[in-house]
Design brief:
The chain is mainly α. It has 6 helices and no strands. Helix 1 runs antiparallel to helix 4, helix 1 runs parallel beside helix 5 and helix 2 runs parallel beside helix 4. It is globular. It starts with a helix and ends with a helix.
Length: 148
């Protein structure tokens, strides 16, 4: 679990670093933090619907998360849409993880362990991705893939 979260955390950080390499001083300002609004709405809506025992909410959330991940692949294929693609990928992975946890319905003790390992793995991956030189990207990708 921690290894997979290290790959996700580090992967999104290194993608953002690569995108920042190509940012021009004349580019308009970005407000990527505003994507937290639809992400919170997505996860909050899922949480509410799951608490109300809405039929098939887990499958609907998996479907929405899959669409976000597909949008991420499409977005990352072009320099002009790559930042949106990276954000969609984060939303898709978060939705998929939330739906998986929801369908498992773990006890509070197990949920705390899952959260702890996820935070630890994500922090390790993000820290590694921030410290590695961009020119060492192939080695970093190989390292992250070895965690899975």
């Amino acid at each position: 679990s921690s290894g997979i979260n290290a790959e996700y955390g580090g992967g999104f950080v290194i993608t953002q670093r690569m995108l920042d390499m190509f940012k021009r001083p004349t580019d308009p300002p970005e407000h990527n933090f505003l994507y937290a609004i639809p992400a919170a709405t997505f996860l909050g809506g899922y949480g509410y619907a799951a608490s109300q025992n809405m039929a098939d909410i887990h499958q609907m959330t998996y479907f929405a998360a899959s669409l976000c991940c597909l949008g991420a692949l499409g977005g990352l294929s072009s320099q002009s849409t790559a930042r949106v693609g990276n954000t969609l990928g984060m939303m898709g992975v978060s939705g998929g993880v939330a739906a998986t946890i929801g369908i498992l319905n773990p006890s509070m003790e197990v949920l705390a362990q899952m959260g702890g390992t996820a935070l630890l793995g994500g922090a390790v991956g993000a820290t590694i991705a921030k410290k590695v030189e961009i020119t060492s990207l192939p080695q970093l990708v190989a390292l992250f893939h070895s965690f899975c």
